[in-house]
């Protein structure tokens, strides 16, 4: 239960980071992978380990069709199959066609690449890859590595209680006072949404949109928070993805998309603000992790902590459904939550 879900799609970085035949080494759930894009345009993800002596294939050249191991020159196709062992004599009967590197499924969506690290036969239907419902005029991506477990990091995506104390910057939360909040939560596939409502927030970020925007926040397994803001034809989306790198390191990726070309001008200002915001999470998460390392228990308390409890319920259901080979059934119900933040 403390491990990240084994069968789910995790963000492994922006899709445009693989342009020009580049290979990238990525960590995902304790696994080292090499990802790339072939001449045919298809993305691939392979275990970053040559079967011969364990060399990282990401350190070798890639010609758009085969990856060459820099240790003894073995070549592998983007499907993981061995294509050539150049040191083999013509008179050697050894057959390399059965040698394979483990491939992993990879997809592109919302400008990012998503990998499912599960090995073996698929278990259940993994949560869908996040999509973007409009054509963005621009986007801004900030990635930040957090030295904390995946669960602790994901909880920060659904935890309303920390916002007033951790994200107390003028531009995000000008008022210092805690106010009563009443929000309706509804289950959706593999998660829950905070139902769309006319926001009453005084945040200058929302005011940029003009009018009274509608905000909808969705959380879904394995660690995805999708905030969609709409004012008439104008769209802004703030997506946050948590990716388990190893047992105590988690990547937080934040992507802001907007439909209005005029907002492109704000990009140089928005980037440091987004870094500041994520850095606030990074600092408290790393310090809290040290406390959890000494004693791993948490007291989840009051309605403001219910979304955190729901995360664990959703995750347990996904694990149990996967083990039993049955369909995931969302265990949550629609309800109103009250807290102060
Ligand atoms: S380690 Fe890869 S070819 Fe020898
Ligand atoms: Fe936060």
Automatic annotation (TrEMBL):
Pfam families: Rieske (PF00355), VanA_C (PF19112)
This protein's record includes keyword Transmembrane helix: no
Superkingdom of origin: Bacteria
InterPro entries xrefs: Cholesterol_7-desaturase, Rieske_2Fe-2S, Rieske_2Fe-2S_sf, VanA_C_cat
Domain Rieske, first and last residues per copy: 9-115
Keyword field: 2Fe-2S, Iron, Iron-sulfur, Metal-binding, Oxidoreductase
PANTHER family attached to this UniProt entry: 3-KETOSTEROID-9-ALPHA-MONOOXYGENASE, OXYGENASE COMPONENT (PTHR21266:SF60), IRON-SULFUR DOMAIN CONTAINING PROTEIN (PTHR21266)
Protein name: Rieske 2Fe-2S domain-containing protein
Naturally occurring in which organism (per UniProt): Methylobacterium komagatae
Upper classification of the organism: Bacteria, Pseudomonadati, Pseudomonadota, Alphaproteobacteria, Hyphomicrobiales
């Amino acid at each position: 239960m403390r491990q990240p879900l084994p069968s789910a799609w995790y963000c492994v970085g922006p899709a445009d980071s693989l342009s020009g035949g580049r290979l990238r080494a990525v960590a995902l759930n304790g696994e080292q992978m090499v990802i790339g894009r072939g001449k045919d345009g298809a993305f691939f993800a392979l275990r970053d380990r040559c079967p011969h002596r364990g060399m990282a294939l990401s350190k070798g050249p890639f010609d758009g069709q085969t990856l060459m191991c820099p240790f003894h020159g073995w070549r592998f196709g983007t499907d993981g199959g061995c294509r050539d062992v150049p040191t083999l004599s013509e008179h050697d009967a050894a057959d390399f066609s059965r040698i394979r590197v483990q491939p992993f499924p990879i997809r592109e969506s919302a400008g990012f690449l998503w990998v499912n690290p599960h090995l073996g036969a698929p278990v259940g239907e993994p949560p869908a890859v996040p999509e973007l419902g409009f054509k963005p005029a621009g986007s801004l991506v900030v990635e930040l590595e957090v030295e904390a477990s995946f669960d602790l990091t994901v909880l920060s995506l659904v935890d309303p209680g920390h916002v007033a104390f951790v994200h107390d910057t003028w531009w995000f939360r000008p008022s210092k006072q805690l106010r009563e909040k009443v929000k309706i939560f509804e289950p959706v596939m593999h998660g829950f949404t905070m139902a769309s409502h006319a926001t009453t927030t005084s945040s200058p970020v929302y005011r940029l949109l003009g009018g009274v925007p509608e905000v909808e926040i969705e959380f879904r397994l394995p660690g995805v928070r999708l905030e969609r803001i709409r004012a008439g034809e104008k769209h802004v989306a703030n997506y946050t993805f948590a990716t388990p790198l190893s047992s105590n390191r988690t990547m937080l990726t934040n992507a802001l998309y907007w439909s209005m070309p005029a907002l492109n001008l704000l990009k140089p200002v928005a980037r440091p603000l987004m870094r500041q915001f994520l850095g606030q999470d990074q600092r408290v998460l790393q310090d809290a992790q040290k406390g959890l390392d000494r004693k791993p228990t948490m007291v989840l308390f009051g309605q403001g902590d219910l979304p955190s409890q729901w995360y664990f319920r959703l995750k347990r259901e996904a694990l149990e459904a996967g083990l039993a080979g049955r369909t995931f059934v969302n265990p949550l119900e629609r309800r109103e939550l009250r807290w102060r933040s």
